[in-house]
Amino acid sequence: MEWNLDDSRSIWPQLREQIMRAIVAGEYKPGDAFPTVRDLAQDAGVNRNTMQRAMAELEGDGLLITNRTSGRKVTDDQKLILKIKEELAQKNIENFIDEMQSLGYTAEEAVKMAERVTEKKGVNDK
Amino acid sequence: MEWNLDDSRSIWPQLREQIMRAIVAGEYKPGDAFPTVRDLAQDAGVNRNTMQRAMAELEGDGLLITNRTSGRKVTDDQKLILKIKEELAQKNIENFIDEMQSLGYTAEEAVKMAERVTEKKGVNDK
DNA sequence: TTTATTGTCTTATGCACCTAAGACAATATC
DNA sequence: GATATTGTCTTAGGTGCATAAGACAATAAA
Questions:
Q1: Which residue is nearest nucleotide D7, judged by alpha carbon to C1' distance?
Q2: Interchain pair A96, B96: CB under 8 A
Q3: Which of A73, A47, A118 is nearest to B111 (CA)?
Q4: E strand or H helix at A67, and its extent?
Q5: What is the pLDDT of residues A40-51, one digit of tens each?
Q6: Against a cut of 0.85, is the pTM above it?
Q7: Which of A18, A37, B28, B54 is most enclosed, with most CB atoms within 10 A?
């Protein structure tokens, strides 16, 4: 997968978030085998301890299942995945509106401006 | 002003952003006198060196003007303030849509979901 | 049974940031 | 002219994170 790391924040939460998004977006399917810590660390260009931390958190989230010597797999619990996806979306929307309001826009203005951007640029650009 | 500091990121950029938002939102008017570093630091509950760093950055942004012994004031350049406000809004919108897409939604879906939230909850709630 | 793989634990090192607090030059204020 | 204010610079110490790399138990694979 593609990594996008920002040195203004700690790395392990970013790894956690990005893997989480990949799972809820269906990039990794429920039940899929998952790369080893060492491989994934190398792929992302981070130390294996850092990736280890992210994986442990994702296990705590219930998204990854660990089998001591046979590696990890994505959870089979599709309801959990959907629930997390919707929670992330909700937080994202609220955060967007909050920030626009802190700039001095109303929520309606914020939504209308976003609408205008999507109409101009199309769905898949950016 | 009200401070909202998060220990998952460095503090000085957060101070910078929050002061910047307060200025573009009109909470501080163009030409207004600005509190001293020491006062503002105490108000925010941070060390004065940390606040100093944020102020220096804001001066670099052109939003604050420093007079060595008489303190600081907000810039008179209303065009600059407006320009920064619009840039922040633009970035915010793009960021919102990017994140929703990374969760597996289309840009249109993202906007519609945001629309639904504002309709339900009203402008000034949260 | 032997070997390799995998997750995990541990110790050590370096770095960036925050805090703390002293000091000083420029200048507004009295 | 004396004093206080203000921004700024400096040194010191503590903390959390990332890196690096060795080690080990459990177990899959040969």
A1: B68
A2: yes
A3: A118
A4: strand A64-67
A5: 999 999 999 999
A6: yes
A7: B54
